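FORM 12-B: Structure-to-Sequence Request
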């Protein structure tokens, strides 16, 4: 499909996102029969046109929810037939219910649509995508480990444990100072939001991202199907759970007499990374290289994947 025709279609979807969008109207804009248009759209965008429309509606729905609208009102606003159908589609795409997103998501901007490079060769794209998935998945772990390495470089961390857990999860534990959380849970929430709060990233958005290079913890969190963080500091233990960057509850705080430090358990988003698994060898090599010049740092690896 020609880029100009595709741009007109994508622009039409955004302009009429609160309406019921018909296939025949889109195919007419593109200048093809409905059948041929559907075929070309799927080949170019990597998803059916109905799937794309649903994603755009749900992305715009997030903004409406954060503006304070009720879930039921948002469901009908974006032409879903029922509250249940909207909630089911929303949760399937973003991992969290509309109510949870409205309560805990800090901010959200509807991403601009991107017209793919239709001249790319399919074989090259497939090979490149496999390499990108592996690179980016390992980068999730590298980014978290960087936080522990920085603590060690400053002399506050003497041990880092990395555990490869079932279901393609990785647990990273250090005995550093722990994130600067306190008994003031409102202030602690602001700290976690600044460091970790992300936003749901769909597969369509990820496909337009370049290789992850020092992406930051918020982006890492957004690309994780789940991320659990436990912080021990000043005889207190703080816990929070995230799904695709969205906090799932208020910060949990309890008394603790254990050592200070931070523990992160992350699981990459399977909707994005598919069956790709962490490269245990690369992670071990990377961490040993990064820690080679740090004295008195013990590193332990557990499990396998």
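FORM 12-B RESPONSE
SEQUENCE OUT:
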């Amino acid at each position: 499909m020609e880029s100009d025709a595709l741009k007109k279609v994508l622009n039409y979807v955004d302009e009429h996102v609160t309406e019921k969008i018909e296939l025949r109207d889109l195919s007419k804009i593109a200048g093809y029969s409905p059948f041929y248009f559907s075929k070309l759209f799927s080949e170019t965008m990597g998803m059916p046109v109905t799937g794309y429309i649903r994603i755009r509606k749900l992305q715009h729905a997030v903004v409406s929810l954060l503006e304070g609208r009720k879930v039921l009102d948002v469901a009908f606003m974006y032409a879903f037939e029922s509250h249940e159908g909207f909630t089911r589609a929303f949760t399937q795409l973003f991992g969290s219910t509309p109510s949870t997103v409205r309560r805990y998501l800090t901010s959200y901007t509807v991403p601009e649509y991107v017209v793919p490079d239709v001249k790319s060769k399919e074989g090259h794209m497939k090979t490149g995508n496999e390499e990108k998935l592996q690179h980016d998945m390992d980068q999730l772990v590298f980014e978290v480990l960087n936080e522990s390495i920085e603590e060690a470089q400053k002399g506050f961390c003497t041990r880092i444990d990395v555990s490869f857990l079932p279901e393609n999860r990785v647990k990273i534990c250090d005995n550093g100072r722990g994130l600067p959380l306190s008994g003031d849970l409102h202030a602690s929430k602001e700290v976690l939001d600044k460091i970790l709060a992300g936003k749901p990233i769909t597969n369509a958005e990820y496909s337009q991202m370049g290789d992850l290079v020092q992406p930051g913890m918020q982006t890492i969190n957004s690309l994780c199907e789940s991320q659990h963080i436990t912080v021990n500091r000043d005889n207190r233990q703080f816990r929070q759970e995230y799904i695709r960057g969205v906090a799932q509850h208020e910060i949990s705080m309890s008394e603790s007499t254990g050592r200070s430090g931070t523990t992160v358990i992350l699981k990459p988003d399977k909707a994005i990374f598919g069956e790709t698994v962490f490269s245990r060898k690369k992670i071990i090599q990377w961490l040993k290289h990064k820690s080679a010049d740090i004295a008195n740092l013990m590193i332990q690896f557990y499990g396998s994947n």
